[in-house]
Amino acid sequence: MSFNSFSHELTLFQKIKNYDFILLFCILILGITSIFTMYSTDGGEVLFHTKSHFIKFSIFFPMMIILSFINIKYWHAGSYLFYVLILGLLVWVALYGVTASGSRRWINLYFLNLQPSELMKIAVILCLAKFFHRIRTTSANSFTSILVSLTIIIIPSILVITQPDLGTAILISFSGLIILWFSGLRIKYFIYSFLIFITSLPFIISFLKPYQKLRILTFINPERDPLGSGYQIIQSKIAVGSGGLTGKGFLKGTQSYLDFLPEKHTDFIFTLFSEEFGFVGSILLLLLYSIIIYRIIRAGLISRSFFSRLFCFGFSFAIFLYVATNISMVLGLLPTVGSPLPIMSYGGSSLLATMIGFSIVLSASINHRQNIS
Amino acid sequence: MFDESDNVRKINTINRRLFIITAAKILVFFGLTSRLFSLQVKQNNKYLTLSDKNRIRESKLHPVRGEFRDYFGNVIAGNNEVYQLHIVPEQVEDFRYITLRLKNILNLSEREFQKIHKKRKKIKAWETIVVSDNLSWEQFSKVNNYLHELIGVKTVLSISRIYPFNENYTHVLGYVSQANEKDIVDNKNIKEKFVPGIRVGKTGLEKTFENVLLGENDIQRFEVNAYGRKISQLNYQKGSKGQDLNLTIDTEIQKLCTELLKDKAGSICVMDIFSGEIIAMQSSPSFDPNLFLFGINQDDWQLIRNNPMKPLLNKTINGRYSPGSTIKPIVALSALENEVINPEFTVHCKGHKHPLELYGQTYHCWKKEGHGFVNLKEGMKQSCDTYFYEISRRLGVDRLSETAKKFGLGKKVFGELFENEKKGLVPNTIWKKNALGQSWVLGETIITGIGQGFIQTTPIQLCLMTAQIANGGYKIYPKIVLNNNQQYLDKYKPLFKNSKNIKIIQKAMFSSTNEVRGTSYKSRIDDPKYRFAGKTGTAQVKRITEKDRELDLKTFEIPYEERDHALYVAFGPYKNPRYATSIVIEHGGSGGTTAAPIAKKLFKLIIDRHKLRQSTKGKKYLDI
């Protein structure tokens, strides 16, 4: 115990020995898959999306490797700062952000339109992991800790809702709440709040914007407006369904090639993948995500520090949540909320946030013996 | 910092909760997998169909319509190559400029110009606007001169109907014109094969044989994108041309009929007395069916519609006329068959001073001076009304109508072949009771005997009647479409009780044309090769009053609408009959002066062409 509390630096050899190559390999495979899929969305040509996605991945992937060699204790130390920084960016967005298609989400950094709400998905996990790292099990359920942790979650969520971007706000809240769950918040609190949520649902719905209400109606019955609000989901189902067992083949997805699929670069990229590679390809992709999620959990399980453990578990849940939400959405199991598929979807900020998350996980697995005071 | 036990508790909590969450994750992924399975494997076919429905568009092209040919294989309704002018808006840089240029080049009216712009608003940029569906040669060459400047404009070869013999076949074939809503609703076949601008039969055989003529569409299958733009052609399914139909008509004779009927209202039809083939059938006045192909203009249409001689009416089958004296062969035959008279039965015709009197009504013969003592042959030859008053009085209308119906009067000759063919009317006592609720009066029998009163016949019925007398009294079925090999059980069934009676009637008709004092003696042909036998008829349009009888005006002195219809039925060559004809000239005066001379010209050509027709028979169209 006392031996471990001394923070002693690992040699480079030890670091490489501890490195989670399986996770690294899976991320690389996913990245390559995403570039090829992007190439298909461009109609089998190297056009803007393919180029851009390729460049971003080629920058962020090495960046992730470099960042992963930063000792986890520095992540721990910088957690609050990171959170406050991103929160500051969210406030900046609210004041001076770039507006596109009716919502103000971006900061123009010239080489990249940064979407801080995506980074907040990681920041909130990081921040709460640090917060609960210090707190005893007994005091985890204290009024103060609940109040503080909820504040950490609610402030960015509200900022994101006002952008407006309900989907991301929900994902941020859930990423935060899962840390509360792991840190031992009483289960009855979760049950109570769930019941309160259900009973106040009609009240919440009355606050939704008309287009959001429409999405819910469309989700319940897409056929009510097949050429309007139901179009996306119907076409998406047609694409996936027509893919069959083995798919139509690479670059042969008629639904996407002939422009029947909307948003095929971003939220609906799974549809295109599934159309071209079929049930087998989809299952393999899900398997790849499962391995990644498993490797993240494993990194948490071998870690000594609660911080690493909480972050890894939280991040693994976040990845799971993004994948599950996105796929459920395109398969018509959830209303359409804007949620990208990690790494696969086009979008720099989302890719950046995910890569930062992975670098922390990799750092945690390198430094799993590290104890953080 | 923390005591050991709290650390352990904390780790236990985390791990326990991790277990719950992981279980939930597995459950969710399992759910997603089964959803994928259901969509992609179980419902694959459904979604594959939907996906194809999304991306594949079929476009039907104009089917090629079957042609009509005459007996000798000449095309009488064919397919003509026409040039259409198309614009594809997205290929045009400045749509307004291009259309203005076209307006100048083609001399388009302001209305047509506006129509193009209206259409432009309705369609997508990559769809085609048809500016003209029938460029004249002059327009075509003019456009071709400027075509290199008119990017996005192209001339396209298309196929349209053409009637090379113009007005000659209008009433037989009818005409085609753009399908309207009614055509589509009424005919499932048209609905199935419909493409914008498709021409369908509106009247005549073009309409009757629509389903056979239509043909199958060529089908192009395209892959389209979400906006409906064609991406590539997937396949091209060749359709087939509609069936060609051969008519029994001889165009040369048909053309002669048209010429003979020039400036007259009336009908001529010629029939083969054994096969029932229609050799010619023309109704006058006629009109040029080519006018209807691309939409007739208002002036032409009003001219046709308002013509008092009724060009739209096919008088041969739709015109109803009192047969007048042309009924007399049937009256005489009926009287002989029913043994009411024998050929030597004689009546004394005393002229207008002593008309036949019945129940206070007087019945005059047409001849003022009377015919004196006449037997059957003389009665027919001179068309003595008094003679026929007497024999029809003895015969009675019911027996007369029975014979008339047997020979084809009072029912449709072509069955359902022509729309609106008229049945005509052969009255009898039961008919009058049912239709008018009144009892038959003897006087009505008397006038029925000379083809006046209730009796109504169409020219084609008179022709059939004559043909069946000419062929020795055997039943035939007229036909006009050669390929149509409908079988009739009672074909060639004898219509007589005693064939001698038919012979007597034939001889009487011969004398009417070829003997001195015969009503059509002036129109005879002495050459035995062409010699024909006939019976004139003059049908009153209005009742003759005493005053008229006193005035005794010449035909040209009477107003047109009040003049008598002139009729003539004939068959020839007399020695070995082959053809029968009926001629009706509306308001033509007397049959002997107006209708019979037409037969003289007609028979010359008919018999001259007989050999050619015989040699063609059975040699052609075996491949169809």
Number of domains of chain A: 1
Cα-based radius of gyration of chain A, to the nearest Å? 21 Å
The rounded distance between the terminal residues' Cα atoms of chain B is 106 Å
Largest sheet of chain B: 5 strands, mixed
Q: Note poorly predicted spans of chain A.
A: 1-6
Order of strands across the main sheet of chain A = 1-2-3
Task: Provide the structure class of chain A.
Answer: mainly alpha
CATH superfamily of the largest domain in chain B: DD-peptidase/beta-lactamase superfamily
Query: Which topology of the largest domain in chain B does CATH recognise?
Result: Beta-lactamase
Structure write-up:
The complex is a heterodimer of chains A (373) and B (624). Helices cover 71% and strands 3% of the residues of chain A. Chain A has 373 residues and is mainly α. Chain A has one domain (20-366). Chain A has a three-stranded antiparallel sheet, covered by helices on one side. In chain A, helix 13 packs across helix 15 (269-302), helix 15 runs parallel beside helix 17 and helix 16 packs antiparallel against helix 17. Chain B is an alpha+beta fold. In chain B, strands 2, 3, 4, 5 and 10 form a five-stranded mixed sheet that branches. Chain B has a five-stranded antiparallel sheet with strand order 12-11-19-18-17. Chain B has two domains: 59-246, Penicillin-binding protein 2a (Domain 2); 251-285 and 315-616, DD-peptidase/beta-lactamase superfamily (Beta-lactamase, 3-Layer(aba) Sandwich), CATH 3.40.710. The longest helix of chain B has 39 residues, at 4-42. The A-B interface holds A 136-138, 178, 181-184, 235, 237-245, 254-255, 258-260, 274, 278-279, 282-283, 286, 290, 293, 297, 300-301, 306, 309-310, 313, 317, 320, 324, 327-328, 331, 333, 373 and B 1-2, 6, 9-11, 13-15, 17-18, 21-22, 25, 28-29, 31-33, 35-37, 39-41, 43-44, 46-48, 50-51, 54-55, 223-227, 231.
